[in-house]
């Protein structure tokens, strides 16, 4: 069973940084496409950063040069990270980890104050 648990969200001032983490169990992260999505109040969920099974990464235009997706392992746990730099108020949203376009975590709130 695939389980995804996000963490690392919080309140940060504009220009600051956060690193989101997603602890993923039930699958091998290198064998699937993984991604981060976000949903702001009143808006549809949108893709932010993703990594395909060949390791290639893609970023939405709005976050290019600021956000980076990566993977790793911590004590035999698959991890998916989203490093977010130069944060802007418009980055405020609930951020979700996703595997293979199917499995979702519960989300973590990111709030950027101006």
Helix content: under 10%
Q: Largest sheet at a glance?
A: 7 strands, mixed
Q: How many angstroms does the end-to-end distance come to?
A: 40 Å
Mean pLDDT: 94
Percentage of β-strand residues? over 45%
The gross shape turns out to be globular
| Low-confidence region ranges | none
Brief overview:
The chain is an all-beta fold and 114 residues long. The protein has no helices and 11 strands. It has strands spanning 3-7, 10-13, 18-25, 34-39, 46-51, 57-59, 67-74, 77-84, 93-99, 103-104, 108-113.
Question: What can you tell me about this protein's structure?
Answer:
The chain is built from no helices and eleven strands. It is mainly β and 114 residues long. The strands form two sheets. Strands 2, 4, 5, 6, 9, 10 and 11 form a seven-stranded mixed sheet that branches. Strands 1-3-8-7 form a four-stranded antiparallel sheet, with no helix packed on it. A hairpin with a 6-residue loop joins strand 4 and strand 5.
Keywords:
114 residues; 0% helix; mainly beta; 55% strand; 7-stranded mixed beta sheet; 4-stranded antiparallel beta sheet
Helices, strands, pairings?
Blueprint: E1 3-7, E2 10-13, E3 18-25, E4 34-39, E5 46-51, E6 57-59, E7 67-74, E8 77-84, E9 93-99, E10 103-104, E11 108-113
Parallel strand pairs: 2-11
Antiparallel strand pairs: 1-3, 3-8, 4-5, 4-9, 5-6, 7-8, 9-10, 9-11
């Amino acid at each position: 069973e695939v389980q995804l648990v996000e963490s690392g969200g919080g309140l940060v001032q504009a220009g600051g940084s956060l690193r989101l983490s997603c602890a993923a169990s039930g699958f091998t992260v290198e064998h699937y496409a993984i991604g981060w999505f976000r949903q702001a109040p009143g808006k549809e969920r949108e893709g932010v950063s993703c990594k395909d099974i060949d390791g290639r990464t893609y970023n939405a235009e709005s976050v290019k040069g600021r956000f980076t997706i990566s993977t790793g392992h911590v004590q035999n746990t698959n991890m998916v990270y989203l490093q977010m730099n130069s944060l802007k108020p418009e980055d405020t949203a609930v951020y979700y980890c996703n595997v293979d376009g199917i499995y979702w975590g519960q989300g973590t709130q990111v709030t950027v104050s101006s």
